Amino acid sequence: MVKYGLDYTRCRWILPLLLGIGVIFGIIALAGRGWLESQTLPYVHQASLWESCTRPGQGGQWTCESLMGYAWGRAAAATYLVGFILLVICFALAIIAFAIDTLRFNFIRGIGGLLFVAAVFSIMGLVIYPVKFSTEIQMTGINMFSWAYGFGWTTAIMEICLGFFFCCLPNYEDQILGNVKPTYFYSSP
């Protein structure tokens, strides 16, 4: 990756593109209704980050209750939302950093640090939600934390991994800019 992956003329937009994918995954997690779902028939429970919906039987009407009435619901939503906002800020800063003709490597390292902070907030929200939800909300049947919750964890993992990439990238500044003489492993007889 160091020798060819971030060459200016070829692949310098890989990291901002991955951040953009993380933003899309975060939007899916925030808007998705699949944080918790019933695992078996009859499907009687479905929850998002914002509300919990139940129905009495297979053909009944869904009744929804806002999770913002609970302190832990507000805390989970707020911490995950703060992590998502920081991710969007990092995405905008990465586009600015890679659009400039000369990379500012200290600026890139700062984006990596901000990604770690975003990951901490996202993980806090992702841990608060299932712990408090399973203890304070009455659940019937077998339930599972589902696809939207998985997108939330994927976003948090991407924040951590991309934070490492952004923090370690300045260590290879000379290789990326082409200031290092190539080494050949050929010896003459």
Automatic annotation (TrEMBL):
Annotated transmembrane regions: 12-32, 77-100, 107-131, 151-172
GO cellular component terms given for this protein: cytoplasm; desmosome; plasma membrane
InterPro entries linked to this entry: P53_induced, PMP22/EMP/MP20/Claudin
Pfam families: PMP22_Claudin (PF00822)
Keywords attached to this entry: Apoptosis, Cell adhesion, Cell junction, Cell membrane, Cytoplasm, Membrane, Transmembrane, Transmembrane helix
Organism superkingdom: Eukaryota
KW Secreted (keyword) present: no
UniProt record, GO biological process: apoptotic process; cell-cell adhesion
Location in the cell: Cell junction, Desmosome; Cell membrane; Cytoplasm
Record-given protein name: p53 apoptosis effector related to PMP-22
